[in-house]
Design brief:
single chain, mainly alpha
Length: about 150
């Protein structure tokens, strides 16, 4: 019974989910762009794999630089974090969704869905919320429906 109550309560909240729905629509747009691009060639697939490794290395790089993590040799207890930084720097990759969208001939999709919905991803909707404090969930739902 508790499960049914939770589902019912969640359904009633749909009108208040504009921001998460815009974020989901943007994620689906980006995923679609990358899936299409990767499916075009083995070379693209390998570049995409490199990009995923690059994104993970960026997190590690920033954590090392910020002193939040460190690499310690088990045998000596010596901090060798600075030795790994050049290797992490070498893993940089500059892939951009906009460039990929242009290559795919989908720049219009990028401009209308990805770019606009990025405002919600990055919390830059203050002005939009002033103009229309109660956005309709129909907008991001239509974006999501198009991708599904």
């Amino acid at each position: 019974m508790q499960r049914a109550i939770q589902i019912g309560e969640a359904a009633l909240q749909l009108a208040d989910l504009e921001v998460p729905l815009f974020v989901l629509a943007r994620v689906l747009c980006e995923d679609t762009l990358w899936m299409l691009w990767v499916s075009q060639s083995r070379q693209n697939a390998m570049k995409y794999h490199k990009t995923a490794v690059s994104a993970e290395s960026k997190i590690s790089r920033e954590l090392f630089k910020g002193g939040r993590i460190r690499l310690v040799k088990t045998e000596t207890g010596q901090d060798v974090s600075n030795e790994i930084l050049p290797k992490l720097e070498a893993l940089r990759d500059g892939r951009q969704a906009e460039v990929i969208a242009k290559q795919l001939g989908l720049h219009k999709l990028y401009d209308i869905i990805y770019r606009w919905n990025s405002l919600y991803v990055h919390g830059n909707t203050y002005e939009a919320e002033l103009w229309n404090p109660k956005q309709s969930s129909a907008i991001p739902l239509s974006h999501i429906q198009a991708f599904l």
